[in-house]
Amino acid sequence: MIVVGNDSFGERLAKAIDATFVQFEQRTFPDGEVCPRILGDVDKDVILVNHVKLPLEPNKYLIETLFLVKTLQELGAENIDVVMPYFIYARQDKAFRGGEPFSARYVLETLHKSGMSRFFTVSSHTERDKDKLTISGMPAFNVNGFVSIGNYLKKKKFSDPIIVGPDEGAEHFASTVADILDCKYILLEKHRDLDTGEIEMKSNHDLHGKEAIIVDDIISSGGTMLNTINLLKKSNAKSISVYAVHLVSEKGMEKISPHVREFLASDTIETPISRISVVEQLGEKLKTLR
Ligand code: R5P
User: Atom 9 (ligand 1): residue with closest C-alpha?
Assistant: First the structure.
């Protein structure tokens, strides 16, 4: 079995599951077309991990992954597992308005039709509380990245922590971390206007003396998180820290960092603050399914 990857994330994953690492080179021509190249021998069993960094380029990433799956198949691979630490397009997990695509499903279907056997991701925004994603009918596994965040936080010394989820959809994340830290969690109320993107949030919790730990799956514009931080500032919390699995934009990072005690993300995407690794957990999942 080999792990085909573009950077140290793939190398670390290969080490975690005792597989051989084979590098692929990323090339982009001046007109924007991509031409990845696998720089080693291909095995029957392949795990392909295309790890992204900021700024995200989802379209380029998708085409590159698609070409790699097809190339691997032509080079003799029979089982091709795709590890997409950050599931691109997963936020569009339904057609929110008439005429829009169900992008998350289309990504899985396209990769499957191209030769992908199974799909692995971390804290997918779609079907976020499930270990197995059902949106496409193909084997797709969802590793809970909040376990890695919880394990990181457990090593820190919090005297009176409380986990905060920015909206009701964050219950699964907040409860995972709260269970690991053996503390309580609360969820705020959020409403986003689909046309303007404007966010309205509510909370009437008094967090006097508490160390508020906000957790979310994705930080994109940073709007949700900034609103959450501003609400918590009014709740008398002793300190505020933020942890996210996927930090998808630098803007989000710049918006939040000055307002909190600590702001970290996992390494599903390479960013300046990706200091919590999900590699071990991903490796465990891959090993149990071999
Ligand atoms: C929403 O359901 C997600 O969990 C995140 O809260 C959201 O995607 C964050 O987006 P933004 O940073 O643009 O507010």
Answer: 219
